Amino acid sequence: MRALVFERNVAKYAAAAVAGRLVPGKGASVGPISLQDIDEPELPGAGWVRVRPRLAGICGSDLATIDGHSSRYFEPIVSFPFVPGHEVVGDLDNGARVVVVPILTCVVRGIDPLCSQCSGGHPNRCERIAFGHLEPGLQTGFCESTGGGWSTAFVAHESQLVPVPDALSDEEAVLIEPTACAVHAARAIVAGKPDDVVIIGAGTLGILTVAALRGIGYGGSILAAAKHPGQRDLARAFGSTQVVAPSELNRAVRSRTGAMVIGNQLSGGAGTVVDCVGSDDSLTQALSIVAPGGEIVLLGMPGLRTSVDLTPLWHRETSLRGCYAYTADDFATATQLVADAELGRLVSALYSLARYREAIDHAANAGTRGAVKIAFDLRNERNR
After folding, report:
1. Which of 141, 211, 140 is nearest to 172 (CA)?
2. pLDDT 10s per residue in the chain (384 long)?
3. Which stretches of the chain are DSSP H helices?
4. Of the candidates 109, 97, 103, 116, which has an alpha carbon nearest to the alpha carbon of residue 163?
5. How far apart, in Å, are the Cα atoms of 101 and each of 76, 90, 139, 148, 369?
6. CA 366, CA 357: separation in Å to the nearest integer?
7. Residue 20: which H helix or E strand, with range?
């Protein structure tokens, strides 16, 4: 089968880190990812099926890996070589079209009894992601045993499969997984009953978070910081109350809340700030605009090294919480939201596997090129 394979190669990974810092997406040209003909992964056991991808999205975590920016935290919870791709709509051998829930939980790994998180309804916090009958891997697309969506075939456990309604196009269906992330975040945000929410970053995740907040009924103020004109238009279209450039965000929060300025810090601020970027700059800005006693939700995956002054977190009793993946209920809500909000329009371009360097370049520079979600189109790949 045809697949994009990411191998363990320290020298090439280091080269990708240098190239990716200079030109986003350039790690695909010099790093340890390549297009290969490989054997299809074996079915690990009973309850497993083969999935043949139709579309597979390119996520920010994929880009960080390819450009050598991902944290060393992941080293013990991935296995090499792996085939990336966890945002997938595909076909089963019986003709059913499905979306895959990629997190590799206790159930998927054949672990009994379940860990406390899985048994408590929080599979996204599974404690056994390096154990069981699979190689380590937090998700499909980062595990040697399963393969991933950037290929013509991979394997999945039946518990991971979500049927796709006939009314949804492939372009809509490929957005269910990232939308589930946004729904999970939106529910966590709304649980705090904030009067106002600030969202930093308006790439795919930021736009979907705006849509998810409105989709689950949040009626408060949403102030979004978006770097590029196309992102600003989408943030408004999906329900933001106000949209500004990142450089204008502190002033906008100050104006809305009546806060004063003390150095680079606002005296007051927003009740909830959602960081959909995960960089030093975005987290520093979040700390500067969140209200005392407020909450920062870290939705964007942090990079390799994050250096941030946490003094305001301590002094102002601010809460900082991570927000990762989703539950089964989030996935169900996401499927409906994709249809209701017509989120398929966020898929900006499709590429064949052979054009993977172009695809990754487009995804890494999507905002500057007026794009949102870039995906691989596997429907016409040979040997599919």
Report:
1. 211
2. 999 999 999 999 999 989 999 999 999 999 999 999 999 999 999 999 999 999 999 999 999 999 999 999 999 999 999 999 999 999 999 999 999 999 999 999 999 999 999 999 999 999 999 999 999 999 999 999 999 999 999 999 999 999 999 999 999 999 999 999 999 999 999 999 999 999 999 999 999 999 999 999 999 999 999 999 999 999 999 999 999 999 999 999 999 999 999 999 999 999 999 999 999 999 999 999 999 999 999 999 997 667 899 999 999 999 999 999 999 999 999 999 999 999 999 999 999 999 999 999 999 999 999 999 999 999 999 877
3. 10-22, 27-30, 60-66, 106-109, 116-119, 170-173, 176-191, 204-215, 229-237, 249-257, 280-289, 311-315, 328-340, 356-364
4. 97
5. 21, 12, 9, 12, 30
6. 14
7. helix 10-22
Alpha helices (H) in 67-203, listed in sequence order = 106-109, 116-119, 170-173, 176-191
138: which DSSP letter?
S
In the chain the first and final C-alpha atoms are separated, in Å, by 7
When computed from its CA atoms, the radius of gyration of the chain, rounded to whole angstroms, is 20
pTM above 0.90, yes or no: yes
Pairing, β 97-100 against β 88-92: antiparallel
Alpha helices (runs of H) in 216-346, residue ranges in sequence order: 229-237, 249-257, 280-289, 311-315, 328-340
Read off the tokens for 286.
């979040």
Provide the token pair at 221. Answer: 């103020």
- Altogether, the residues listed in the chain come to a count of 384
The two structure tokens encoding residue 67: 């450009």
For residue 208, which phi and psi values (nearest 5 degrees)?
A: -65, -30
Give the number of other Cβ atoms within 10 Å of residue 261's Cβ.
Answer: 12
